[in-house]
């Protein structure tokens, strides 16, 4: 069940106090509107009733989706004990457990799991697309503003690479990604009970770990 609480807050712009409502948990199966607000970020935006300034508060949030069997802990901190205690029973039921430290990764992770995709394969696809983008001289690394997952359907994953003035899409057969993970099981293995953060930093660390300084 979704839960929220009221919090006394001082506006960072006008300095006046007012009450905001923050959500500590969201159950996507119970409230589709909350799901949408979590994905588009509205759930974390607040408006000062005194000066009308809008601001962002990224509070810790436990997001569950019983239909697709995943739980995402949105926080910059490790999961607290009460959440960790849920790991074993949820994993036994086939759930995926993840942590995201920012809203962009959080929204993307929800989309990935709703699509039934493997987030490890997504990060590998994003990494490979970025390397191919550079190798084909489509642009320089410093020109890339984002590498994003868009969708997975009909056995094909779509990854978008964007720069300030253009974009490029890559279509990657999921079967190729399946084979890559199967061939390197140890490299891509994770401990789901720890609510791992599977993101670009994680995939980069797999290929740069142990390299001499300056070669990453």
Structure in words:
The structure is a single chain. The protein is α+β, with helices and mostly antiparallel strands and 216 residues long. It folds into two domains: 3-114, no CATH class; 119-208, no CATH class. It is 31% helix and 30% strand. The chain has seven helices and ten strands. The chain has helices spanning 32-40, 81-84, 87-92, 103-114, 119-135, 174-183, 200-208, and strands spanning 3-10, 17-27, 45-47, 54-56, 61-65, 70-74, 96-100, 144-153, 156-163, 167-173. The strands form three sheets. It has a five-stranded mixed sheet. Strand 8 and strand 9 form a beta hairpin. Helix 5 packs across helix 7. The chain is globular. The model is unreliable at 210-216 (pLDDT under 50).
Task: Compile the SSE list and pairings.
Layout: E1 3-10, E2 17-27, H1 32-40, E3 45-47, E4 54-56, E5 61-65, E6 70-74, H2 81-84, H3 87-92, E7 96-100, H4 103-114, H5 119-135, E8 144-153, E9 156-163, E10 167-173, H6 174-183, H7 200-208
Parallel strand pairs: 2-5, 6-7
Antiparallel strand pairs: 1-2, 3-4, 5-6, 8-9, 9-10
Helix pairs in contact: 5-7
Tally of DSSP β-strands = 10
Level of helix content?
25-40%
Shape: globular
What letter string, H or E per element, gives the SSE order? Answer: EEHEEEEHHEHHEEEHH
Beta-sheet strand percentage? 25-35%
Side by side, the strands of the main sheet go 1-2-5-6-7
Radius of gyration: 19 Å
Question: What oligomeric state best describes the polypeptide chains here?
Answer: single chain
- Flag low-confidence runs: 210-216
Helix-and-strand structural type: alpha+beta
